[in-house]
Amino acid sequence: MPILPALAAILLLLAAPLRAGPPRVVADIPPVQGLVADVMAGIGTPEVILGPAASPHGFSLRPSQARALQEADLVIWIGPELTPWLAGPIAALAGDASRLRLLDHPATLRLPLRDGSGGADPHAWLDPENARAWLPVIAAELARIDPANARRYGANAAAAQARIGRAEAKVARLLAGAPPYVAMHDAYQYFERRFGLTLIGTVAAGDAAPPGPARLARLRAVIRDRGVACAFREPQQNPALLETVLEGSGIVPRVLDPLGAGLEAGQGSYVALIEGMAQTIAGCAPG
User: What is the three-state SS of 132-143?
Assistant: First the structure.
């Protein structure tokens, strides 16, 4: 090799920042961690702040989680609409990290909250089309931080998009003609819109709105008058109020999990989440 081109190549390598390993990525909730893990397959493993059995609407950081934020190169989260308690720690602890707020990205389908407050419904990961749209966004941000693996991030994102597309078609078949249902809180609007489901009512009006006796009485009457046979509780919430509403109806609530508490975190967990939800709903049929 001629001396000058070889010298130029060496200087270019010395000028480029050298990474000691894959980017250190922190996600807010397990479904987002699963999508990031799909993009990082074969390169690294993202960490997650919120355990799958914890509610995203109220949480206290453990020291290990605070340390993960401090060491992060990239924080990927839905946004403060879902986890308002996380905004402060990200600002205080992850000051040098890049940040990606998925709910604010132009590729995201955003639905308004149905409680009339005017805010955006933060449960956007439950529309698989949003998940598919986020994958190349995540890949591009990782490639910016870690250009040496840019091609692999892009290929992983494309492969994950294809898997989610196949899962979406499977879910649509499973949920064709699914029965109407009641739930703990209004978390499933994106899933309902994508797959044509019918929510009859919820125990709580919003994520931070404890229901009063009048609301519970109305829900009990709706269940009786509409002949509802399906009700779903969540592992992240106390089911006592739902069980009170269902008392005497003969309905046994099933577990519908928007975060994947029973799933192994990491690659493939997002597909397992939406398929598992579909099987739960489809399996709750009258008679």
Answer: HHHHHHHHHHHH
Indicate whether 42 and 73 sit together in one domain.
yes
Residues ≥6 apart with Cβ < 8 Å to 19 = 146, 148
For 24-67, the pLDDT digits (tens) are 999 999 999 999 999 999 999 999 998 766 777 667 788 999 99
Do residues 189 and 167 share a domain? no
Q: Could you tell me the sign of the dihedral formed by the alpha carbons of 145, 164, 200, 213, in that order?
A: negative
Q: What is the pLDDT of residue 53?
A: 63
Using CA atoms, how far apart are residues 215 and 218, in angstroms rounded to an integer?
A: 5
Domain termination site, one of 136, 154, 171: 171
What would the pLDDT profile of 181-225 be if each residue is shown by its tens digit? 999 989 999 999 999 999 999 998 765 567 888 999 999 999 999
Q: How far, in Å, are 61, 91, 199 from residue 171 at the CA level?
A: 35, 38, 17
Q: Tell which of 118, 141, 171 closes a domain.
A: 171
The pTM score is 0.90
Give the number of other Cβ atoms within 10 Å of residue 129's Cβ: 17
Which residue stretches of the chain are H helix? 3-15, 30-39, 63-71, 84-93, 128-145, 150-174, 189-195, 213-226, 240-246, 269-282
| Nearest residue to 77 (alpha-carbon basis) of 96, 57, 49 | 49
- Report d(CA 29, CA 7) in Å as an integer: 47
Which residues make beta-bridge pairs with 231? Answer: 182
Residues 228 and 284 sit within 8 Å (Cβ to Cβ): no
Q: Which residues pair with 183 in a beta bridge?
A: 202, 232
